[in-house]
Amino acid sequence: MADPDTHSLLQIFSGMVLAFFSRAITGVRPIWSGTVPSRKQRIYFANHTSHGDFILLSSSLPMGERARTRAVAGADYWNGNPLRRFIATRLLGTVLVERNWIERSEDPLLVMLRAIDSGQSLIFFPEGTRNMTEEPLLRFRAGLYHLAKARPDVELVPCWIENMSRVLPKGTFLPVPLLCRVIFGTPLQLQPDEERKAFLHRAQSALLTLSPQPQGE
């Protein structure tokens, strides 16, 4: 079994390789419209339409920030076979959470907080699953609120991922070369005594404002 340092080096190298290929295929351009790259610990929360979303977002971060940023993903999918498990745990260092609340063995919130407390930033998809509908966003689940409440000092940065659903549609393996952007918005914080529903609505609105497509048409 490889030691933790070996895993870290493997993940850093894998991140560099994936960043190179994602830039080559998509020409991904980060747009820092509401913030700038920072060494602060952050939770980047984004729209979710493709398995490639977290790779594109990660590739848009400076190398130092990318090295300590982990995506949160469903254990049910990534533990589905040995290859997926190897990619998620060894190559990408993904934070895997169990989404089935009946059968899960550990609270997903505790898994994410453990990653934050170890100094990692997170890439988080508050819709909880890929959006396969015509709506710009699915309803946000409560996870983002619980993270904000448990770790109020960690910045919450909305990120709109553009075009990735066309680069890597569901059910495909080979990406289609198309230009993509990741738009980083203004960080949010949970306000004192702010209720869950109000916070999630505010977070969803902040994400929607970053979409280059007009909403409500």
TrEMBL record:
Domain of life the protein comes from: Bacteria
Residue ranges annotated for the Phospholipid/glycerol acyltransferase domain, each copy included: 42-164
Pfam families, sorted: Acyltransferase
Gene Ontology molecular function, alphabetical: acyltransferase activity
Keyword Flavoprotein belongs to the record: no
UniProt keyword annotation of Acyltransferase present: yes
Keywords: Acyltransferase, Transferase
SMART domains: PlsC
Pathway annotation: Lipid metabolism
The protein's name in its UniProt record: Lysophospholipid acyltransferase family protein
The organism of origin for this protein: Pseudochrobactrum kiredjianiae
